[in-house]
Design goal:
Shape: globular
Structural class: alpha/beta
CATH superfamily of the largest domain: Class I glutamine amidotransferase (GATase) domain
Radius of gyration: 19 Å
Helix content: 25-40%
Largest sheet: 10 strands, mixed
Order of helices and strands: HHEHEHEHEHEEEEEEH
Number of domains: 2
Amino acid sequence: MTDFNEDGISRRRFLGAGLALAGTAFSAASLDAFAQQGAPRRKVVVWSEGTAPKSVYPNDVNTAIAEGLKGLRNWDVVTASINDPEQGLTDELLKSANVLIWWGHKRHDDVKQELVTKIVNRVKDDGMGFIATHSAHYSKPLKQILGTNCGWKYYINDGAKLSVVVKDSTHPIARGVKDFDCPKTERYGDPFEVPKPEAFVFDGIYTLPNGTTEHSQQGLTWTVGKGRVFYFQPGHEDYPMYFQEEIRAIFRNAVRWVGPRRANPANV
């Protein structure tokens, strides 16, 4: 298997170019330009159901997440909504996606089973990466990918402060991320009905309005079939959490990590 970096350039090709340039003065910028030259572009689709309050997310959650992905090199970022034709995911778009990010809340039952089956097959059979965030824990795609109910013990929207703790600093999704706070959130209480995760990347501590604290898992990963899966709990629609730079950095890292290591198998 050829070893590719995050931009799809093989180490052999990159090192070969470095030898060819030996003895020549060149900058980090020129190396970066070479890394991007000829790299296959990949695609991340950010999906949501359009139910977030416009006072918090004027252009919906999917747009807020997509804006935070602009720093990804060689990635095309596309937004999709359940309100779009074919519930936002045509066969052509789904087959071209290397990563699918999913945010849902009130309309889980409206997502057609035919579409869910296609998403699950893309993850398990083709290796498309899947990221579910906040209330998408209860989405049809995540439940069928993981094969469990994916429920939490309780849900309480009391505006508690959330302290996100980097549990596994060696994981690529945690790269460059330090512990940080979200001023207000909805609380999801452990246990979480999911299979044992491959990695427990982020932990969390809620500080309730009365000053007491509670623990809850925040970021978990799995490999299912050929695909990588990441669940990230922060992101209630009443609070502007998807505009926080720390959360945007986590999504950028997560897209890189769940994305297939090589070109999209469905398009080879």
